[in-house]
Design goal:
- This protein is mainly beta.
- The chain has two domains: 102 residues, Jelly Rolls (Sandwich), CATH 2.60.120.640; 291 residues, 6 Propeller (Neuraminidase), CATH 2.120.10.80.
- The strands form ten sheets. The protein has a five-stranded mixed β-sheet with strand order 1-3-5-8-9, with no helix packed on it. A four-stranded mixed β-sheet has the order 2-4-6-7, with no helix packed on it. Strands 17-18-21-22 form a four-stranded antiparallel β-sheet, with no helix packed on it.
- Strand 30 and strand 31 form a beta hairpin.
Length: 431
């Protein structure tokens, strides 16, 4: 086939007209690169791994009907091509290419006659992607107090109230990362352990209970890194500073976290390797987009940002806006936006930078609250965020809530043991 037929007439309903006698839907999801279909049947086409050519019957009668549907919402990535197999399609012969490449699309075609051949009865794209419930609660854990590294944790309720200390489980750690995964759970890990770098992680269940240590997979490097949710139900740790076998260096490392909390071995991330950046999801509750920004490459602060896709692919450097700094924090807010706040230049700073639902970082805004570094941020209450702990030099037990418009609220003090280098994640979709 050659040439192009324009397609993709999108309507919001996504409904498919049934044949008078009904359709016999295939029980097997098509994942192959080719499939030959039969009249009177419906097919689920999954192009997550490859494009698919759908070969129509070589002979047909008036009223014959076939339906195909985008099983994995992947046709925009890998298109479906129809081969009309010697018959006409919308009045054109089979030298024409017929591609369908819209996310969530479904196609209902009926055979008319030898002149027009196969005709689309509907060519619909589902308007809305089902999204998981928004994260309602959060947890802060680990860090360094005035007496040294600790294992304690503090739960954050759906109204933003931080509970008193809970004796933690697992080994001490400070300066790592934390993020939600699986839609309603969390993972905390990496950083500096009792005496050296650690790649140990700890899972957080839907009740906010921290599990025992999970040793790192082979090849995973312990380091001062950050973490964020990616896709609908996964997470990743990325960048940082640690031991490469001969010296302490800035790492261009990434470790993906599956939807069951399994941490993958190190991979190399694009962009500038750096320590003490911050990262967060944005763009919607499905967490399909994320951004990592700021940090200190070679101990010199930067305002670089990198967008992250739903599979954990890190984009190239974008020259950032706002003040270059490190040791800051980030959180989503408003359902589809994000905010970076606080940090350290040559001094502690009290500023924030909002991120739009398209991943655009805005200029500096002065914020209320104590200027500080080595804090962490997490989502709570569905569409809000919280920054907590950190240090000015002295360890702090202060929090600042972020409302659903991205406004950072005044300090609230006395929330558990004062400490810095904490990690945090959201958890639970139940208020």
């Amino acid at each position: 086939m050659s040439g192009v037929i324009v397609d993709n007439v999108a309507r919001a309903s996504g409904t498919i007209a049934a044949t008078p006698g009904g359709l016999d839907w295939s029980a097997d999801v098509v994942t192959a690169s080719t499939v030959t279909v039969e009249a009177g049947r419906g097919y689920f086409i999954n192009t997550s791994s490859n494009a698919c050519t759908v070969t129509l019957p070589s002979s047909a009668e008036a009223g014959d009907q076939i339906v195909i549907a985008d099983y994995a919402r992947s046709w925009a990535t890998n298109a479906v091509t129809l081969d009309s197999n010697g018959l006409n399609f919308q009045g054109e012969d089979d030298t024409y290419i017929v591609d369908y490449d819209t996310v969530g699309q479904s196609l209902n075609i009926v055979y008319s006659d030898s002149t027009k051949g196969w005709l689309p009865v509907s060519d619909d794209a589902v308007a809305d992607v089902p999204e998981p419930p928004l994260t309602q609660k959060a947890i802060f854990a680990y860090g360094t107090s005035g007496s040294g590294k600790v294992t304690m944790s503090n739960l954050v309720a759906s109204n933003g109230v931080i509970a008193s200390d809970v004796s933690g489980v697992g080994s001490v750690k400070t300066g790592g990362g934390g993020a939600s995964y699986g839609g309603d759970k969390g993972i905390l890990g990496f950083g500096e352990g009792a005496s050296d770098w650690t790649a140990v992680t700890n899972l957080v269940n839907t009740s906010g209970v921290i599990a025992a240590d999970t040793s790192a997979v082979s090849g995973a490097s312990g380091r001062y890194c950050t973490a964020c949710s990616i896709g609908a139900d996964k997470a990743m740790f990325l960048y940082g500073y640690g031991w490469n076998g001969s010296a302490n260096v800035d790492f261009p490392k990434a470790n993906l976290v599956s939807n069951v909390g399994v941490v993958a071995a190190d991979t190399t991330a694009a962009g500038t390797a750096r320590r003490y950046p911050a990262a967060t999801r944005y763009g919607g509750s499905d967490g399909s987009k994320a951004i990592v920004a700021y940090g200190a490459p070679s101990a010199s602060v930067t305002n670089i940002s990198n967008l992250i896709d739903g599979n954990g692919g890190v984009g190239s450097d974008v020259s950032g806006v706002g003040t270059s700094r490190a040791n800051l924090a980030a959180s989503p807010y408003g359902g589809d936006k994000a905010i970076f706040a606080y940090g350290h230049t040559s001094t502690n700073v009290g500023m924030s930078n909002k991120v739009s639902n398209e991943g655009v970082v805005a200029t500096d805004v002065s914020v209320v609250g104590t200027a500080r570094r080595d804090l962490y941020g997490a989502p709570y209450g569905g569409d809000k965020g919280v920054f907590a702990y950190g240090q000015t030099g002295s360890k702090l037990n202060v929090k600042n809530l972020v409302n659903n418009s991205g406004v950072i609220q005044a300090d609230v003090t006395g929330v558990g043991t004062a400490r810095a280098g904490v990690v945090a994640s959201g958890y639970s979709t139940s208020a």
